[in-house]
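Figure 2 data, in text form.
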Amino acid sequence: MNIHRTGTLPVLLLTLSFAAGCGDGDPQMPPEHMHGEEPAPREREYFIAADEVAWNYAPSGMNMITGEPFTDDENVFVGNGPDRIGSEYIKALFRSYTDDTFSELSPPTEEPEHMGFLGPTIRAIVGDTIVVHFMNQTTRPASIHPHGVFYEKDSEGAPYEDGTRGSEKDDDAVPPGETYDYHWQVPERAGPGPSDMSSVMWMYHGHTDEVADVYAGLMGSMVITARDMAHDDATPTDVDRELFTLFEVVDENQSPYLQQNIETYAGDPDSVDPDDEDFGESNLMHSINGYVYGNLPDLHMNLGESVRWYVMGMGTEVDLHTPHWHGNTVLVSGMRLDVVELLPATMVMADMVPDDPGNWLFHCHVHDHILAGMSAIYSVAP
């Protein structure tokens, strides 16, 4: 099923966002804004499918923070056994395709390796229209729900009693094997505000069964750039490198694939008690982009580059995260920081101009989360 609704742009609304400010003479500020010919408003098309894939939270098989094999305490979360799943799970992930046949994945060069299990980055410039051609290639109904942009009821991607009927409900739960076109407009209120940097991030995620969909892995990021600060591909002109990180305690116990994961990965599936407290604990994956214990790859940058970090959180009441950068600092809302605060469904944009080369720890500063593996390494080349 394919439905097109254009609608009209809303009046300008006032929005709040976490943002980084700029101060004159600051040695860590991004280069001067590069003003040139502004890209014309356009329709930006994306071909995104929900796919069921096998995902490994610790593909190296070791703790990359310590450089050592996993300890007994760490194997609580990543160790495989007769009644344990281990570090590999079947998940549902958003993935990018080259066209509406959904037969060929987009080249891996289009998305940095550090994105992990995050879906493809959806980009647009203020004034654009985003069209997402969505294909549900999983065994369950699925949808895409965006934050921040403007959409009509037939492109919300969330089922609830909202007074709509008929075709306006088709976006809520796309059946397995079927397609749907989501249309999202990008008015000024979806882009950077008066105190924001040149680009802002919004998240998108599955919302047919929101909790189960998110824990299954249906999460992604969307970047909206100011028109006078955008390249034609919608990337910001004053940034050399963009990095995306999702901090989340992924509760695989609430994934719709739990029983399938037990049957696929546990050494003796019949011995598994899903209600056992220790088994439940083993499936709480304290991850950054779907990786634990330093297995997140490719957080690389160069000395003196303008680096924009898009940091977001998701989850439940345990998902109070405090991402901390060793070695370098960031600017957020005009403040100099090396730790930022996240709650579920919050997003922070932080600008860094690294002045300290080396390999540096990047981790959640909550003690329980450190012990459970919510840590990574970022590298600054001289």
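Caption note: The CA atoms of residues 12 and 67 lie 52 Å apart.
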